Amino acid sequence: MKITFLGTGTSQGVPVIACDCAVCQSEDIRDKRLRCSIIVETQGKAIVIDTGPDFRQQMLRAKVKKVDAVLFTHEHKDHVAGLDDVRPFNFKYNQDMPVYATEQVQKALRREYQYVFEPPFYPGIPRIQLHTIHKDQPFEAANIPVIPIEVMHYKLPTLGFRFGDFTYITDAKTISEKEKEKVRGSKILVLNALRKDNHLSHLTLEEALEWVEELQPEQAWFTHMSHRLGTHTNIEKELPASVRLAYDNLTLQF
Fold first, then answer.
1. Which terminus of the chain has a smaller tally of CB atoms within 10 A, N or C?
2. Mind listing the domains of the chain with CATH numbers?
């Protein structure tokens, strides 16, 4: 299995427009963060989790030639705004793009992309094949088994996803004990860690470390980081050996 972090930033990305802070002015490429997304490659298939507003740029930067399915964690704009850019894959392979999302997310997609789902259908629009998923029902995407994990993003339920020994969770603040059991035993765990000071709907660095301490993966990587967290170099010095900060274009293979 190969995981590529297409983006590791928060909703505004890093650097933030018009910001002069040390992180936004950093020349370290690891402090340049597009909106949060990964691609999971296994068994000859490629699955993208979330198509944010940087999706086109991410596909080009990572030289992605084929996407077999898209999974959505939730409906916020920084996670769905790039869906229109699946069109090149439609054209190249002459097939609809399988998209896996909860009914709640599908409702938002139908609203945001009305021209995709309701006539009259304009020539060249994205071709989407929607598949409904539910937190309590494991499913297959591109014939790859996936376990959905519900977390709460303040009052909004969002999904993390587990592929074998790998679990990816972003935009989380809390998790039930029942859902936590789905995560246990993961060898690699990806979690959001927005910043150091408290936030209403995202894990702080300290809270993310507490999750890692409880769930005990072999390796943890933090993502969905804002410019208020600190520079990559400085924050990594504060972390235990088994925890690292992810960065754009990082690849993991296992």
1. C
2. 2-253 (3.60.15.10)
